[in-house]
Structure formats: C-alpha cells, structure tokens
Amino acid sequence: MLKKIIGRNISILYRHEYQYIDIKLKKYNLNKVQAEVLLFLKDNDNVNHKEINDFFLFNKATITKIITSLENNEYVTRISNNKDQRYKCISLTEKGINIISNIIEILQQSEKIMIKDIAEEDIEKISTILSQMVENITQEKES
C-alpha cells in the first residue's frame, strides 16, 4: 500500500531531482531553489519579495534567505524604490544573467533523465495532473 501513496513518490522524485541538480550547481554556489528563483528573475525583472513568494509559495523568511544568498554570491541586487525605501526591487546582476544558460542546461538534463522512455502524451497528462494536485492542496491549505 505504501508504494501507491502518490505523495511518497512525488517526495522521492523531488528529493532525488534536488540532489542531482544540487551536485551540478555546486560549482556555482547555488542550489535548485536558488536556480529556479534566478530563472524567475530572468523573466520577471525588478520584482519584490511578495511577487517571488506569490509564484513559489514560500514563506517570507525563506524568500529573504534565498535572496540574501543570491545577493551574497553577486547573482542579484536589491534596489530601493525612491518613493518607498521599504520596497526593494530584485534584479539579476551581470553575473546572474551570465549563469542562466548553465542553469537551463542543468535543469533540462535533469528533466530529460526523469522523462526518459515516457510517451509525450503521458508527460503532458502527468504535468496537467500534477498542476491540478498543486492547485487542490494549495486551495485546501488556504481555506
């Protein structure tokens, strides 16, 4: 019965993928989550902590820790808003921009390994189902 619990398999998949990607990103002083935040910033320049949190559904302390680490490694910069000093925009630095292609390559390698020998229609179905599962649990958590 335990092998049929969906959450268990998702958890195992997540942990193994995380470990694989972390090993590949180690030379850049990054982990998987930090890399994903950098990719988010590539497509969403000058965002604040709340906007990052709304996308990733982390808590504020986690976002702050991630951004601080990225800033310490010179991948991002925080820029104060002239109208409100409490509002900080987060942007990629030149170093952050330059690492994006490496991150994409590593994430694509990982995904290629995960979906090996799985039919395209099954991959699409899995993606749709997982998205719905995330939506379901998120709605339940928020209510």
TrEMBL record:
MF GO annotations: DNA binding; DNA-binding transcription factor activity
Keyword presence, Nucleotide-binding: no
Annotated PANTHER family: TRANSCRIPTIONAL REGULATOR, MARR, TRANSCRIPTIONAL REPRESSOR OF EMRAB OPERON
Domain HTH marR-type: 1-135
Database matches in InterPro entries: HTH_MarR-typ, Tscrpt_reg_MarR-type_CS, WH-like_DNA-bd_sf, WH_DNA-bd_sf
Alphabetical keyword list: DNA-binding, Transcription, Transcription regulation
Domain of life: Bacteria
Pfam families: MarR (PF01047)
Keyword Repeat: no
Name of this protein: MarR family transcriptional regulator
